[in-house]
């Protein structure tokens, strides 16, 4: 099946309004993870309007309503109930083929297809569990996002939504980390991920998907631009955006962005700022 195409051009005002909604949601006192992920999906698919956003939230509510309220057995019972509902009855899960599809990083598509990357499936698990009253948090293991139930500092269990909600032992988690990085599991990796960290990681996945497919540079560009709307993001993303604009033939815009980035880094890395200004001059020269 072909990959999702780049979005069709849409009115600039509609795009600006959606991005303002994303920026406002990211700065809320309690960022709504589902809404932010759905707004990412709307960037990829402008046909996903307010009614579509609402329908996805309603589906998460519906799934949460199918869970038993406050099951006996603590964190383990919550994890098993989620696995039985979402993994077994509803068929949510993933496979290596899902890494090749942009839809695997879009929450509304994951809800429709019931397939996705580990982090998007974890978002489904967390949002359904949270609505049902479960003590749930995301765990951003390197290379493989999973979900935790219970007290992160005390009794808790881990589940892998990509594997249908399979419960993970400490050894299982260590194997996932070793397979991704070659490093042992450490306590820092088990720290609960906050919503904005999760959103940035989703956008990083989309950037990586598009970067490997130059014909989808428009996808890489909007993923970068959404990342830059987050309250906290790596400064290097501005440099990446500027370079991408130049690669796309937007030489003046890219040069202006490079010069602005050079001003940002000059105080801490003057030699780097000089090199970036050379890149800006080279971009402007492409117009001659």
UniProtKB/TrEMBL annotation:
Residues 1-22 are annotated as: Disordered. It comes from the Bacteria. InterPro entries: SirB1_N (IPR032698). Pfam families: TPR_9, Transglut_core2. Belongs to the UPF0162 family. PANTHER family: F-BOX ONLY PROTEIN 21 (PTHR31350:SF21), SI:DKEY-261L7.2 (PTHR31350). This is Transglutaminase-like domain-containing protein. It comes from Streptomyces decoyicus.
């Amino acid at each position: 099946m072909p990959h999702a195409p780049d979005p069709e051009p849409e009115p600039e005002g509609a795009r600006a309004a959606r991005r303002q909604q994303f920026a406002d949601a990211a700065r809320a006192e309690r960022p709504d993870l589902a809404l932010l992920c759905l707004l990412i999906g709307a960037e990829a698919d402008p046909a996903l309007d307010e009614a579509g956003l609402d329908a996805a939230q309603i589906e998460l509510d519906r799934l949460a309503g199918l869970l038993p309220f406050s099951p006996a057995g603590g964190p383990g019972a919550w994890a098993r109930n989620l696995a039985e509902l979402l993994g077994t009855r509803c068929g949510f899960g993933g496979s290596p083929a899902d890494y090749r599809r942009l839809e695997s990083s879009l929450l509304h598509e994951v809800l429709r297809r019931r397939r996705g990357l580990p982090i998007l499936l974890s978002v489904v698990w967390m949002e359904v569990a949270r609505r049902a009253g479960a003590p749930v948090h995301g765990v951003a293991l390197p290379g493989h996002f999973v979900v935790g139930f219970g007290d992160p500092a005390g009794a808790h269990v881990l589940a892998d939504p990509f594997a249908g909600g399979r419960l993970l032992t400490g050894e299982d988690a260590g194997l996932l980390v070793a397979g991704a990085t070659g490093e042992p599991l450490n306590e820092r990796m088990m720290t609960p991920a906050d919503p904005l960290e999760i959103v940035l990681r989703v956008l990083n996945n989309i950037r990586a998907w598009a970067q490997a497919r130059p014909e989808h540079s428009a996808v890489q560009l909007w993923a970068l631009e959404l990342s830059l709307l987050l309250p906290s993001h790596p400064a290097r993303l501005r440099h990446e955006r500027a370079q991408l604009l130049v690669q796309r033939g937007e030489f003046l815009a890219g040069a202006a962005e490079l010069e602005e980035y050079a001003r940002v880094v000059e105080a801490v890395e003057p030699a780097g700022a000089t090199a970036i200004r050379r890149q800006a001059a080279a971009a402007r020269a492409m117009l001659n």
